[in-house]
Design a protein that fits this description.
alpha/beta, Rossmann fold, 7-stranded parallel β-sheet, 9 strands, 41% helix, 15% strand
Length: 298
């Protein structure tokens, strides 16, 4: 039996309140290895229509179910971990506000001690496009997103995506490193979560571009932090069913996946745990496509 040597490690995971999401699955996976898990989350303001509420009650995957999950706190995930004998805490904060980042690390340290494994999973994805708004209002939503109307790129849409998806993980890595060096740390893991559409995501242009920039930060960090015993890697995800992929969209997407099914949050969680394990000690600066073969770069 392989021992990933994660027992007692302190893990901070951002974006973990969706019970069907990647952050929640990753938190549970680490907890099952005996790690102490601190879950960050942030509930963005949105309102479900009566039709959406009906879809949630039916349990039908789609935009409404996903948005409903995003409106929850992380308490359900924390409770599930504790019921299995694990250790977990949570805190809500908008990481688009830089001042929240040192506060998050302070809270983790108060609960469990210094962060040793950092998983940057939180993300913002609001469909936007270069096409003028009159055209996009009629738009072809098959380009991406959660079925929400696309809007034309603005300074605000650009800046908000980069603040959450790029600047926040970069500041998280900087804060992690500062504290790691200050305490004389010798071992650390950082895993950043991206998308296999980051090279150019039509219909979600700011989301894709912000994730592309995150990959650059990650490779730079891998080079700079290696002398301090910290590895940095990226998981680039294909279609993962976190509640947002409707049955109709699933029919279109599955034929593009060689392994023949949508990804599950647990599929991603297992890879993240591996990248954080002792078995991945010689692996850093890498971008791994986790999508059942959805993307196969040479």
């Amino acid at each position: 039996m392989i021992d990933p040597q994660l027992k007692g490690k302190v893990v901070c995971i951002t974006g973990g309140n969706n019970p069907q999401g990647i952050g929640a699955a990753t938190a549970k996976a680490f907890a099952s290895q005996g790690a102490c898990v601190f879950i960050h989350y942030f509930r963005q303001a949105c309102t479900l229509s009566d039709q959406g509420k009906g879809e949630v009650e039916s349990g039908r995957p789609g935009e409404a179910l996903y948005l409903d999950a995003q409106l929850r706190s992380a308490e359900e995930v924390v409770r599930a971990i504790r019921q299995e004998g694990g250790q977990a805490e949570s805190w809500e904060a908008d990481l688009g506000e830089p001042s929240a980042i040192p506060q998050l690390f302070d809270r983790v340290e108060q609960a469990f001690g210094p962060v040793e494994v950092l998983i940057n999973n939180a993300a913002l994805d609001l469909p936007d496009t270069f096409i003028p708004s009159k055209s996009s209002a009629q738009g072809d939503r098959s380009l991406g997103g959660l079925g929400s109307p696309m809007s034309t790129l603005t300074a605000q849409s650009h800046d908000r995506h980069f603040a959450v998806n790029c600047r926040a993980p970069a500041l998280m890595m900087a804060e992690f490193t500062r504290r790691h060096i200050a305490r004389g740390g010798q071992w650390g893991r950082i895993v950043n979560v991206s998308t296999d559409g980051a090279s150019g995501f039509a219909g979600e242009i700011s989301y894709g571009a912000s994730k592309r920039a995150l990959a650059s930060y990650s490779q730079a960090a891998a080079r700079e932090l290696a002398p301090y015993g910290i590895t940095v890697n990226v998981v680039s995800l294909g279609p993962i069913q976190t509640g947002w992929i409707s049955p109709e969209l699933e029919e279109k997407v599955v034929p593009t996946i060689p392994l023949g099914r949508l990804g599950l949050p647990e599929d991603v969680a297992d890879v993240i745990v591996f990248l954080s394990s002792e078995q991945a000690r010689w692996l850093t600066g890498q971008l791994l496509y986790v999508g059942g073969g959805h993307t196969m770069p040479l």
